[in-house]
Amino acid sequence: MSLMKEVRTLTRGRDWRGRTRTPRSATAWEQPAPRKEFATGWARTPVANAVRLGLQRGLLKSVAWSQTRPVVEGLDYLDGLRGPAVFVANHSSHLDAPLVLGSVPRRFARRLAVGAAADYFFDVRWRALVTTLVFNAFPIERFGSKRLRSLAPVLLDRGWSLLLFPESSRSQDGWMTSFRLGAAHLCCTRRVPAVPIALRGTFGAMPRGRNWPVPGRRKIVIRYGRPLWPEAGEDARHFNERLTRAVARLWAEEDIGWYQALREDAKAVVVRPAGPPAAEWRRLWEATRPLRDERPRAVWPGSRR
Amino acid sequence: MSRPGFVLEVDERTPSLLVNEGDGFRLERFPLGTRVVYPPDVLPGLRDVNGAIRRALFNPVGSDPLPTLLFPGMRLTIVFDDISIPLPQMQTPDIRQRIIEQVLELAAEAGVDDVELVAANALHRRMTPTELKRAVGERVYRAFFPDHLRNHDAEDPDRLVHLGHTNQGEDVEINRRAAESDLIVYVNVTLTAMSGGPKSVSVGLASYRSLRHHHNVHTLRHSRSFNDPPNSAMHHSYDRMADVLGEHVKIFTIETTLNNEAFPSHVGFMNKREWEWSLLDQASYLSFKRANDMTPPKLRREVWQRSYAPYGVTGVHAGDPAVVHPLTLANVHRQQLTEVDGPSDIGIWGLPFICPYNVNSIMNPILVMSLGLGYFFNLYRGQPIVRRGGVAIFYHPMPNAFHPVHHPSYIDFFDEVLAATTDPAAIEAKYEQQFATDPWYIHLYRNSYAYHGVHPFYMWYWGAHALEHVGDVIFVGANRKAAARMGFRSASTLADALEMASDTVGSSPRLTYLHAPPLTLADVR
């Protein structure tokens, strides 16, 4: 074999330094190094707070309110509420957090941190930076794989309110899934109230897979409920049930009205809106049905409403 | 701690891999998915070898300490492994020299006068005085050669003694001096799992009459493999003979194991995994390969034969052979054993320049066959790396060359016997006796430096199990005439060999390459 051929055989697959990658089957298995937790403390400094409030109210809210038609109800329930609280909402769209942040009273908005999935929002640095700055997000481990210590109790102790979505992930079909115990557990152990919020229409306005609301400025309802306090000796499981029922009642208010929802709740008829037990397309069909629009009809047909 | 052995699966990241081919080597690009069996990394050698030997002699297993076995007026015979081991030869001082010197120190202290040293060469050629000196060292050589440092002569009726039969009727006939000694001290070097233990005395000091009971086609076909003593009919025979020996002689054995450091530092790339080659290794490969390819064959052979291995000693155990040997085997396995998941359709082996029978000699085609289908094919435990009916591919140029002094019977075996048949059983039945008792071969064995007349037969039997197991044998780069004489096919490249093999195993076979160098024992599950 000529020298050149020999050199070619030798250098094939090697770089200019003569190095080659280790074949996959020869790579030693190593315990993956624990990922460093993304620090979020900087996002709660006064400067970051000011920048965030500007972004939330100036950019985020204007975009959300220009692309959808949010109707905010029940804010009066928060009038007497002071101190930190855990805002708990159903979750079916990326619009949910901006809508709550844009609608919550300013005294809460200034000191509100949002729990965000560690594996989704904190997997790459740039996304973690943007999420932390804009939403004052902190990582929440959904699957218990990395054994992060949650920041939530620390934040509550420091007077920050939290916005949590206890379903842990956006709904696949627009209907509510069961609440995990984390939010209820926080309320019970830290003795803070939970504010139930029902978000209706966000799935139809911007479902999973979309990164911009659908055209047509869909109606969205953000309905706040009366704050719930954990009772003395109440355990997280029981409080979670109450919380779920409260959100379900707020959800039902959109369809059957406030008083009827109260009545049904009293009769224990209100259940978690899990959608019709039907084929997937029918569940999606129902979930994306536009909310009833109560604006007056056009007086003259063909004129702009 | 050394890394364990492992099975590499060739992927697109895998560079070309080193393959031995006689007095040379090449880089070969294997098809994706080929499994490559690597042994554990070279184990660190003992730092204080002399200390380890001393400890072993004073704290043996299954025996009293050596000094207590020595007494004035006794007949002491020190037997040592011949030149067939280790391979390549080790850098001096040879481990045998170190051990023999310490044994002789103790014998001198005990006032032993009647000491003989015997090389356990069985039917191998006699070791030359230079080779003896290299193995036992200058001091021992001067003190004992030529009267008391000798080669074993398996054809001297006066110096053999028949000790009896095993329970299966096998003759046990060994060297008279050893048999009539008060103590045999056996100095062993174990490189592969087949050596040592009961084999040492019952083979090394035996005669043809005794050896024919285990060196035959039937036994070798039922030794699966002969590197796995519990499953080797050959070792079962050794064990039976060792029992008979045990009734007549006292044996104190000293077994040593070596690591896989078979090449000096200037060819250090031979012992490295290819993707870990530094620029220096690559430069060393290129320059060494170019120089090697350009060197005339005779000189090249000389250069390789004079490349002595800087082996490290990984263990020294002494005492009762039956108790010592398992410890030795564990050390061999620690260095060579790699677990493999099942056999494949094609097994690939690169054959080196040396086998036990061409030290300071020429590797003739029969030895190539014996090295490939005998030694390397049998480097397994459980089952061969190639399935029954699969194809064995070997790399060796297989020059049609014989050493006229060392291998005279090989020449006749090649020209006359193999021209008639290559079937081991037919060869054994028709020709073995004739060669084994030929007076000219016996004369050359005893007085020249020739292997015994029957030795080429044993080499052929050595491959009997493989010949029965595989469906086809292909030699890459081999001399076509020589390969054809032995019933094998020759291919120019691996691609050609795989193409030829597709007749037997189809067009998408599973391949396994037993990476050598260094030595690897595949534990095929």
Structure report:
The complex is a heterodimer of chains A (305) and B (525). By secondary structure, chain A is of the alpha/beta class. In chain A, 38% of the residues lie in helices and 12% in strands. Chain A contains twelve helices and seven strands. In chain A, strands 1-7-6-2-5-3-4 form a seven-stranded mixed beta sheet, sandwiched between helices. The termini of chain A are far apart. At the A-B interface, helix 1 of A face strand 1 and helix 11 of B.
What proportion strand of chain A?
Answer: 5-15%
Gyration radius over CA of chain B:
22 Å
Q: What is the CATH class name of the largest domain in chain B?
A: Alpha Beta
Supply the CATH architecture of the largest domain in chain B: Alpha-Beta Complex
Q: What's the story with the biggest beta sheet of chain B? A: 7 strands, mixed
Given the C-alpha coordinates, what overall shape of chain A results? Answer: globular
Q: Beta-strand percentage of chain B?
A: 15-25%
Q: Under the CATH scheme, which architecture of the domain at 41-244 in chain A would be assigned?
A: 3-Layer(aba) Sandwich
Q: What is the count of β-strands of chain B?
A: 20
Taken together, the total number of domains of chain B comes to 2
Full CATH superfamily name of the domain at 41-244 in chain A: Glycerol-3-phosphate (1)-acyltransferase
Mean pLDDT of chain A: 88
As for the CATH topology of the largest domain in chain B, it is: 2-enoyl-CoA Hydratase, Chain A, domain 1
Taking strands numbered 1, 2, ... along the chain, how are they ordered across the largest sheet of chain A? 1-7-6-2-5-3-4
- Range of helix content of chain B: 25-40%
Poorly predicted residue ranges of chain B? none
Tally of strands of chain A: 7
Major β-sheet annotation of chain A = 7 strands, mixed
Report the helical percentage of chain A: 25-40%
